[in-house]
Each structure stands twice: as structure tokens, then as C-alpha cells.
Amino acid sequence: LVKRRDLDRHGLQQRYASGELPWPVGSEDWERAAAEVLPPGVFDWIAGGAGEELTLRANREAFRRRRLRPRMLTGAGHPSTAVDIAGTRCPAPFLLAPIGGQGLAHPEGELATARAAAALEVPMIVSTAASHAMEDIAAQMKGRPAWYQLYWISDKEVTQSFIARALNSGYEAIVLTVDSPVVGWRDRDRRNDYIPFLEGDGIAQYASDPVFRSRLPQSPDRDPAAAGAAVVRMFPNLALSWDDLAWLRDRVPVPLFVKGILRGDDALRARAAGFDGFIVSNHGGRQLDGAIASLDALVEVRAAVGDDAVVLVDGGIRRGPDVVKALALGADAVLVGRPYLYGLAVGGGAGVERVLGVLLEEIHHTFALMGLGSPADIEPSLVAPPP
Ligand SMILES: Cc1cc2nc3c(=O)[nH]c(=O)nc-3n(C[C@H](O)[C@H](O)[C@H](O)COP(=O)(O)O)c2cc1C
Fold first, then answer.
1. Active site residues
2. Whose C-alpha lies nearest to ligand 1, atom 20?
3. Which residue owns the Cα nearest ligand 1 atom 8?
4. Which of 20, 45, 242, 273 is deepest in the core (most CB within 10 A)?
5. Which atom of ligand 1 lies closest to the CA of 202?
6. Ligand 1 midpoint to CA 49 (Å)
7. Alpha helices in the chain (DSSP H)
8. 35 to 10, 11, 42, 179, 287: CA distances (angstroms)
């Protein structure tokens, strides 16, 4: 099995980034190109979902099932797509979803993604499972907005250190991911016998953390595999409950989001625990297989929390029309996941910039075809009820 060691084994990344090969066009083309560039085990780790991949597919099917009802001759003029989410300006209603282990897709990993996001002013959410330390990623953002995604692992002092570092590095919001008390049951990774963390990938937040380092007999640089094994041991946190969250709220003076909510009653619990915003997500189908499509859950969550709450959604967002559908069903903005990682895999930072640039244009184009002047014009009647 070819795992990560032969990254860009055909030299394709280089040929795309240099302009020798033309960029892929649609999101499906980017995925195919990424499959050619990446070692199979790495591609499977990124593209795959849990179990039978029912939820992975359901996310896309939920978008396919719903069709748009555009308005003609609205005279809306040149659309403006920008939105403000909890004080963070987005040029269009999307942010980059937190994705760990980006060094597997390209040697520059999150550093290249951060530069591309900053260049287009698209906010990025940086993962606890990143391949680069959060301070180094923040430095690449050059003051452009970024949020930090927290895993609350079973070692509370390490978790607390992550929070303090994120706040010190200027991250403007904290996103607590709650759908991963354990890592999902992923057939592709089992088949490939591939767990990136055990090879020392995706553990940079830990390896750069003084509290985590104090737990190890040897420094992570000398023994990355042992550090990875320690991460895998401390990751599961099955005892965490809503009652614990006051501790987090007390330590986070910036907006606090919860990611991984799939039910209205859980959104209400999150609100009672002091969260400022909700991200409806099933982790791109990577956690509980059989879970509801996030677009379907969005409707229930929005109904529960009311019009004023900040609600985001992710899972299966690939194109401009998907963004309009999600907003019509109640989201204020969306997170985009795998598409930008395929951009990174295919062409490094230039690939991410291309994917984001095309998505910005496509959203603009969709607004024009829908007769929309701005996101404020989006309302439920723009989507037909599913057949
Ligand atoms: C390779 C990969 C790694 C991910 N790592 C994280 C992570 O570290 N933290 C997190 O909250 N979500 C993580 N996610 C989930 C994404 O934030 C997001 O919910 C998902 O990718 C959205 O689905 P989409 O890829 O279909 O757009 C990851 C997703 C992928 C594909």
C-alpha cells in the first residue's frame, strides 16, 4: 500500500502549480485530479467517510433533492455576497472548514491554505489536528480573520493550553467540535491500515504544546510515533457533557461556536451552555455513519433556535447553488471542506486560491441568476420542497 511517503509520486503537483497542466474545472474534476496526485491511502483518508458511507452520500443527496426557484427580473443589480458572521467579515457566505493533517495533501499544508485564504480574505478555521502549529498558521494569515477549532480531549490541561495559545495568537472565535468523542469507524482507513496520527502526522498542535510535551518521556521530534500514540490515547473523551461547558465559556472571551450539532434540542442545550453560534455538521460523513444529512438537520436546528441565532452548516457544499440552498433553508453561512483540500493536493497554495476564487465567482453568478441583490434577499421560498 502506498501511504504518504510517495506524495506527488508522478510530479503532478509541480506541473499543476507551474501552469504546465490546466486547472481542473468542476469540483468533481478537482476530486479526480487529487486522486491522481495523492497516494491512495491519503486520498482515501480525505475522501472517505465512516462505515458504509451512507452519511457521506446523504450530504450530497440532500442538495441534489432540493431545487431552486429563482425569481426573474428583480432588478437587483450587481449582487453583493458579503456577510458578517459573529464580527468576522466573509466576502461570500462561507468559511474554510477545519481540516486536520493538511501536510498529508501538500508539504506546506495549512501554511499554504492560510496564505491562499488570506489573499482572498476568506476566513479559515484552523484544526486541533493540523500539521502545523497554530502560531505558525496565524503568522501566515497576516491579520486576516481566522478561527480556532478545539477538540476537548481527555487531558484537560492540554486542552486549556490549546485555548490559551489560540487566544494569544489572535484567533477571533473558538469552535468546539462535539461529534468526535471517539474517531469514526472508517472502513477505508482500516482496509489501508492507515491512521495518520500514528505516523506522527496531524499532531503539530500537540507536539508544539509545552503541557503535552511535559507528558512525554522523549521530545516529539525524537520520537514522533510515540507522540502520535499519546495523542491517540488522550483523544477519546466520552465523559464530556453539557455540564462541563461552563468551564470553557469562562475561558473564552471571543465568540464560541459548537460544531457537530444535528438536533434542535441539542442546539438549545448548547445555547443554555453559553455558545454564541451553532454549526450543523456530521463531520462530512466521517463520524457516525447513518447520521442524518446536515442539510436536513439544518431545518430542525434553525426552527429550534429562532431567527436571531447564528447558524452555520457544512457537509457536501461543492458549488454556488449549494450555498444559496443552505441559506434558504436557514443557514447564515456555510463551511467548505474537502473542495479546498483537493485544491491543496493538486496545486498547493495556488490550487487553494484557484478553488476559492472560482467558488467566490460561482456564488456571485448564482446570486445573479437567482435575482438576488445580497444574502439578505434569500428566503425559504427560493427552494422547492423535496419531492
Ligand atoms: C480530511 C478531513 C479532516 C477533517 N478534520 C477535521 C478536524 O480536525 N476537526 C473538525 O472539526 N472537523 C474536521 N473535518 C470535518 C470538516 O470540518 C467538515 O465538517 C467536513 O469536511 C464538511 O464536509 P465536506 O468535506 O463534504 O464539505 C475533517 C474533514 C476531512 C475531510
1. 283
2. 284
3. 100
4. 45
5. 8
6. 10
7. 12-17, 27-37, 40-47, 54-65, 109-120, 134-141, 156-168, 187-192, 204-207, 210-214, 224-234, 245-251, 264-272, 294-305, 320-328, 338-370
8. 12, 13, 9, 27, 22
Q: How far is the CA of 155 from the centre of ligand 1 (A)?
A: 22
Nearest CA to ligand 1 atom 14: 99
Question: Would the pTM count as exceeding 0.70?
Answer: yes
Task: Tell me the residue length of the chain.
Answer: 387
Ligand 1: which atom is nearest the Cα of residue 97? 17
- Rounded to 5 degrees, φ, ψ at 157 are -70, -35
User: How far is residue 198's CA from residue 17's CA, in Å, rounded to a whole number?
Assistant: 30
Report the alpha-carbon distance of residue 318 to residue 322 in Å, rounded.
7
Burial of 135 (0-12, 13-18, 19+ CB in 10 A): middle
Distance 96 CA to ligand 1 centre (A): 10
